[in-house]
Design goal:
Helix content is 14%, strand content 26%. It has 203 residues and is α+β, with helices and mostly antiparallel strands. Among the domains are: 57 residues, Roll (2,3-Dihydroxybiphenyl 1,2-Dioxygenase, domain 1); 85 residues, 2,3-Dihydroxybiphenyl 1,2-Dioxygenase, domain 1 (Roll). Strands 5-9-8-6-7 form a five-stranded mixed β-sheet, with helices on one face. A hairpin with a 4-residue loop joins strand 2 and strand 3. It is globular, with a radius of gyration of 20 Å.
Length: 203
Amino acid sequence: MTTDPTDTSDATGAAEPLLPARGINHLALVCSDMAETVAFYEGLLGFPLVKTVELPAGMGQHFFFDIGGGDQLAFFWFPGAPAPVPGISAPAARPDIGDLVSAVGSMNHVAFDVPADQIDAIRTRLIEAGIECSELVYHDDSEWTVSKTLHEGCFVASVYFFGPDGVLLELASWTRDLRPDDVRHAPATAADAAAYLSAAAGG
């Protein structure tokens, strides 16, 4: 019997995913000062530093933090890395007070999953530690996609704040299970950009 190498179905005939991922192994960002990064993510936020790597030939360092759930947040430090450019390498502002846009291929923000009944208390502790935070908001399917109050159409609660080097961070908590009808929009293409920009400008 000849096996078709392009056949990804299992014994039941159901298609198997090309990439059977179990989640995020790690996200790797770039920092300007590894000591400051460790002080913030381990010292303030409480994510244990679990692996450090000294890169060869003076290239820099690569450190990993355990953010729970089997996931890691990693940072490179390159001694000659270009400086961050707000609005390009990352958003220039929190989404509640400015422009969320960043460049194609950039890492726009990292959202940490937190328990729904603790998100307010965590926000308070961040503020007490000197971190400026957004108000708690709920994302929904309204025109502006946010609500100040929780209702049945909301799907995730969010609080935004910045870490070192202008990295936009988020506390996030699902408020309900996602359903098939939550996928209701056709994906935009590059050719749609002009129409979107015209609509944004009121055209």
